[in-house]
Amino acid sequence: MKEKILFVINPVSGGKSKDNIPDLIRQKFNDNEYDVKIIITQSAGEATQLVKRYINKGFKKIVAVGGDGTVNEVASGIVETDAVLGILPLGSGNGLARHLNIPMKPQKALDLIKKAKSTKIDYGKINDRKFFCTTGVGFDAHIGHVFSKIDGRGFANYIKATVSEFRKYKPKRYEISMNGTTIMRDAFLITFANASQYGNNAHIAPKADIKDGKLEVAILRQFPLITAPGVGARLFLKNIDKSAYIETYQCSNIILKRKDTDVIHFDGEPEEMGEVLNVKIVHDGLNVLAN
């Protein structure tokens, strides 16, 4: 009996050509051993329903080919089933793949997909949206919204958008209820982290554990422009939690209230939501192939 494997390719993620990927997949997964189906998506949101359809057809190994947005769509169709997620990381940030120690080189990532065993990880929900790396409000959500409107993807364009918007952005007031306590904060951003990083090894929650049934909550207050290089460096040095401008908490359920409907992000993808945000963790809700 051949093993059935579905590959879901997002052709635009990361701004990188994926024309050679189908041939590379077929080289690694030959027809004698595997029943391989390769789908190239045509529109945002399409992957989740496709994945559900192919799971019903007996496909138990589903591989997301793209970045964290693609992983989110594919994984959203897998959660709470016995199917397992594989990742071929070809996006801009690849936060979940990096957290799971999945190789960035396609050949090595495909080798891992062939040999790795399945393990369970947590995922999160913000209102009705699932997330697997991070979700949040404030500056990073604002940048996600701006980034979605500009031509061109990639890390360099993301940095340009961040620098351009930093001077203009003002902190906002939030009411945060968690662990039986309610606090008020004027925050530059608030991140709820299942995995430790946004992507590109920028670790907003260095202590986040994707298997512990908890979210790391990182509340960053406004910091002077002159300190921005140091704050940014801490993300990549994995010690942002030691900054004087950040406070961190650990919990499984949060209610966040804000003044108006505004943008949020889930795994880097922007969306508008209302004044009340319910954020929670779902323990052991997703099977993945990982190191």
What does this structure look like?
This protein is an alpha+beta fold and 291 residues long. The chain has 2 domains: 114 residues, Rossmann fold (3-Layer(aba) Sandwich), CATH 3.40.50; 156 residues, Tumour Suppressor Smad4 (Sandwich). The protein contains 8 helices and 18 strands. The strands form 4 sheets. It has a 6-stranded antiparallel β-sheet, with helices on one face. It has a 6-stranded antiparallel β-sheet with strand order 14-13-10-7-16-17. The longest helix has 12 residues. The relative contact order is 0.17. The model has no long low-confidence stretch (mean pLDDT 94).
Salient structural properties:
alpha+beta; Rossmann fold; Tumour Suppressor Smad4; six-stranded antiparallel sheet; globular
List the SSEs and their pairings.
Blueprint: E1 3-9, H1 21-28, E2 34-40, H2 46-56, E3 61-66, H3 68-78, E4 84-89, H4 95-99, H5 106-115, E5 118-126, E6 129-131, E7 134-138, H6 139-149, H7 155-166, E8 172-178, E9 181-187, E10 189-193, E11 197-199, E12 202-203, E13 215-220, H8 228-237, E14 246-251, E15 253-258, E16 262-266, E17 269-273, E18 276-289
Helix pairs in contact: 1-5, 2-3, 6-7
